[in-house]
């Protein structure tokens, strides 16, 4: 792909999210690579308290400068910088859930990734399920559970018994808006399920509980091409080495999982998974890039789990590995993401 002309790019990263550290880690590579290829890069770090810090042209990511600015003041300053595009390096409930995207829209600032609506829907796991269901896409059997009454162990035991009757054991319990598998537990007994409901329901309005499907975990990346069409990247197989599933440690610890590209699955399953990844992307209204996680159960049918609208870009992340499998360098991948934002 022909490189972009030099641009002025603000790389927004950090934020008051459980995925703060992953955002910073991803953004280091983004900043270094964009600078290497001639772009003027301005790191914009959001600390854990939600205050924005603007760095100079040569500064690194993850540094604070003074007390920082509240978001309203920061957005005004971002407008004054007259950047060409904001590269969103956020992950999780701050910056990936549509709120920052909506603010940037109001300011007339272009940014990478999906718009505010698709971002908000994809970040909300129960709402994503409803979209997938409405589009006729395969999902696990599940229950949306109000967390308002889960304030003591007795009520959690009652809820757990009802869930076991509906879904069996184990049960996958998820907070609505967690990322990087933060806020996901897979209890195997009634008592463990009750404990998970009480623990994860604390501070939440609802929980998503799904039937556990044993099988092969895979993920499918979708990337917009220069002509506006979409390329579906090769299927990546995820095989956690020690963890029971692809949790936070398996994702970001060296050697925590084996990530095989292309996945060791029949070609027919791979094609089906790629079609589903593209269908999920379009059903949610994603733009530019997405990565959809799935699991292939005993019947060989890929089941959709969730879609990431700002996939990780660390050296250990899945999207760069999938892109590399089709000869797309890390710089080429960033180029594609930027080009989609600048269309």
CATH topology of the largest domain: D-amino Acid Aminotransferase, Chain A, domain 1
What structural class do the secondary elements suggest? Answer: alpha+beta
Secondary-structure element order, N to C: EHEEHEHHHEHEEHEEEEHEHEEHH
Radius of gyration: 20 Å
- Judging from the principal axes of the Cα atoms, what is the shape? globular
Structural description of this entry:
This protein is α+β, with helices and mostly antiparallel strands. The protein has three domains: about 10-110, Rossmann fold (3-Layer(aba) Sandwich); about 120-135 and about 215-340, 2-Layer Sandwich (D-amino Acid Aminotransferase, Chain A, domain 1); about 140-210, 2-Layer Sandwich (Dna Ligase, domain 1). The protein has eleven helices and 14 strands. The chain has helices at about 20-35, 70-80, 100-105, 115-125, 125-135, 155-165, 190-200, 250, 265-285, 320-325, 330-340, and strands spanning about 10-15, 40-45, 50-55, 85-90, 140-145, 170-175, 185, 205-210, 215-225, 230, 235-240, 255-260, 290-295, 300-310. The strands form three sheets. Strands 9, 10, 11, 12, 13 and 14 form a six-stranded antiparallel β-sheet that branches. Strands 3-2-1-4 form a four-stranded mixed β-sheet, with helices on both faces. The radius of gyration is 20 Å and the shape is globular. The protein starts with 7 loop residues before the first strand and ends with a helix. The mean pLDDT is about 90.
């Amino acid at each position: 792909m022909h490189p972009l002309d030099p641009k002025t790019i603000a790389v927004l990263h950090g934020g008051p999210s459980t995925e703060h550290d992953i955002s910073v880690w991803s953004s280091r590579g983004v900043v270094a690579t964009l600078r290497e290829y001639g772009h003027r890069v301005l790191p914009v770090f959001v600390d854990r308290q939600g205050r924005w810090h603007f760095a100079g042209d040569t500064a690194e990511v993850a540094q604070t400068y003074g007390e920082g600015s509240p978001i309203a003041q920061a957005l005004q300053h971002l407008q004054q910088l007259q950047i060409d595009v904001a590269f969103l390096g956020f992950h999780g409930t701050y910056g990936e859930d549509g709120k920052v995207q909506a603010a940037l829209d109001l300011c007339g600032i272009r940014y990478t990734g999906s718009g505010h609506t698709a971002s908000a829907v994809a970040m909300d796991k129960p709402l994503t399920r409803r979209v997938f269901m409405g589009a006729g896409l395969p999902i696990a059997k599940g229950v949306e559970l109000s967390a308002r009454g889960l304030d003591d162990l007795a009520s959690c035991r009652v809820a757990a018994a009802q869930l076991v009757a509906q879904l069996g054991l184990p049960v996958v319990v998820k907070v609505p808006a967690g990322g990087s598998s933060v806020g996901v537990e897979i209890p195997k007994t009634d008592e463990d399920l009750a404990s998970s409901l009480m623990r994860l329901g604390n501070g939440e309005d609802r929980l998503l509980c799904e039937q556990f499907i044993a099988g092969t975990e895979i993920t499918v990346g979708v990337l917009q091409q220069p002509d506006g069409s979409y390329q579906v990247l090769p299927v990546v197989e995820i095989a956690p080495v020690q963890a029971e599933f692809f949790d936070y440690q398996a994702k970001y610890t060296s050697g925590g999982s084996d990530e095989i590209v292309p996945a060791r699955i029949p070609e027919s399953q791979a094609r089906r998974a790629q079609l589903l990844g593209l269908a999920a992307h379009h059903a949610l209204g994603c733009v530019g890039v997405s990565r959809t996680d799935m699991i292939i159960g005993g019947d060989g049918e890929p089941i959709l789990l969730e879609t990431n609208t700002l996939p990780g870009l660390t050296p250990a992340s899945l999207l760069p590995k999938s892109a590399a499998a089709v000869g797309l360098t890390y710089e080429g991948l960033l180029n594609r993401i930027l080009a989609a934002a600048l269309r």
